[in-house]
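Give me the 3D structure for UPK3B protein.
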Amino acid sequence: ALLPYVPRVPPAALPGKLTATTFALERPCCIFDRHANASDTVWLVVAFANASSAFKNPPSRADVPPYERLPTAHSYMTLEMAAAAYACSAPSLAVLRVGGDTACGDQGGRDPCNGPLPSPGPYRVKFLVMGCHGPKAETRWSDPILLRRASSLSTINPAPAHRSSHMVVIASILASLGAVLAAAVLCAVGAEVWGSLCHRDPGTDAFARRSYRTHHIPPALPQPLPPGCRCSPPGLGCFAPRPPGPCPSK
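Predicted structure for UPK3B protein (250 residues):
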């Protein structure tokens, strides 16, 4: 049976929705309930977009094309799950990750592998219901899915990216604000230091204003005249010898 469901990449923005080797796919719900029973399985068929029309549904599980044959067969089948996992009542994740298994080389090609996709594609996918006697139902092919391309080293510009005028203006404003803030801090610190230097202690000021008086020195007493000097008026000194005896009084 051909089901009207078309697989698609989720339209919402998701982290890693499309990478160089993987892509996210919406998980179908309530699509296979009328065409599958508990023993059936649902597969995802992945093929290159230009080879999807040539894909032939395998008659049994033993004929399922493995992941390792993708480079030569241009298609493979993966993500084998019980049909009940896509039932309406089954709790499930919102998306499937195609190409997310990096350990496919250790499986020997026997189990269905969900290995990384080898090229950007584009790819087409569809869901296929397989029973004990072969295919039972399938969905339509998806639209082409193109993966991201890895940037070549020759296309990477080693020069730094030029800044836009808006970034230059914003950087200038931030630099000016930083300079103003630094100046304000320096002024505040300088004012604080200057105020502490100019502050005077009241006790120190009182001591500085207190006058200092020297001790009183009494005038020198008159010295006795040497013997043999004649008395003379005060201030003239001795100018002639005289006989011993007291000087006559005036």
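The CA atoms of residues 120 and 128 lie 23 Å apart. Let me know if you want a second pass.
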